[in-house]
Amino acid sequence: MDPLRWAKFFATVKHANQSYSGLPYTHHLQNVENVLRRFGITDEDLLIAAWLHDVVEDTSTKLKEIKEMFGDSVAELVDAVTNEAGANRKIRAALTYPKTRKCKKGVTLKLADRIANVEMGGSLVDMYKKEYEEFKRGLFSAGENDEMWKHLDSLMQ
Q1: CA within 13 Å, CB half, 60
Q2: Fewer Cβ atoms within 10 A, N terminus or C terminus of the chain?
C-alpha cells in the first residue's frame, strides 16, 4: 500500500469513534489534504501528515508509532502541529507556536488545518477570529505561504 493510502487507513481506524461537526472525523482530514492540494502543495510528507496531524493529540497514538510507520519527516510534521500541554487554549498555543514555527512545513500544515476548520464554518469560527491575531503573530513569516495567509486573512474578516 502506498504511504498516503496507508496514512488514510491508519487515520480512519484511529479516529473511528470521533466526529467533526457531526461528520466522520475523516471529513476534516480530507479537507486538510484538499486545502494543501488547492494551494498547489503536492509534497508527499505534507499530504500524509494532513491525515495524521491530529492522531497524537486526539487518540492514544504515540509519536514513536508515527515515526516507525511513516518516517522521521512525517513524525516531525505531526509533532510540529501537536499541541503542547497547557491549562487552556491560550497557554497551549503559546507553548506550541514556537515549535511549529521552527518547522516551515509544519506552518504550512497548520495553515491548511486552520483554513479547513474555518471553511467548514460552525461555532468555532468566532473563536478562530478572536485568536487570529495571536495565531498570525506566532506563525507568520513574510514570503512563506503568502497565498494561504491571504486566503485565511479574507476568511477572518
Answers
A1: 3
A2: C
Give me the CATH number covering residue 149. Answer: 1.10.3210.10
| Chain segment 86-120, per-residue pLDDT in tens | 999 999 999 999 999 999 999 999 999 999 999 99
Query: Which residue range is the domain that position 80 belongs to?
Result: 3-155
Among this protein's residues, is 84 annotated catalytic? no
Q: What is the tally of structural domains in the chain? A: 1
For this structure, is 68 an active site residue? Answer: no
Q: Which helix (H) or strand (E) holds 101?
A: helix 89-101
What's the average model confidence in pLDDT over 69-83?
98
Cβ-contact 31, 119 below 8 angstroms: yes
pLDDT confidence bin for 78, thresholds 50/70/90:
very high
- Report residue 122's pLDDT band, with 50, 70 and 90 as the boundaries: confident
Q: Give the three cell numbers for residue 106.
A: 509544519
Of these residues, 43, 58, 65, 131, which one is catalytic?
58
Spatial neighbors of 35 by CB under 8 A, at least 6 apart, are: 112, 115, 116, 119, 148
Mean per-residue pLDDT, 26-32 = 97
Instruction: Compute CA distances 87 → 8, 51, 76, 91, 92, whole Å.
Output: 31, 26, 24, 6, 7
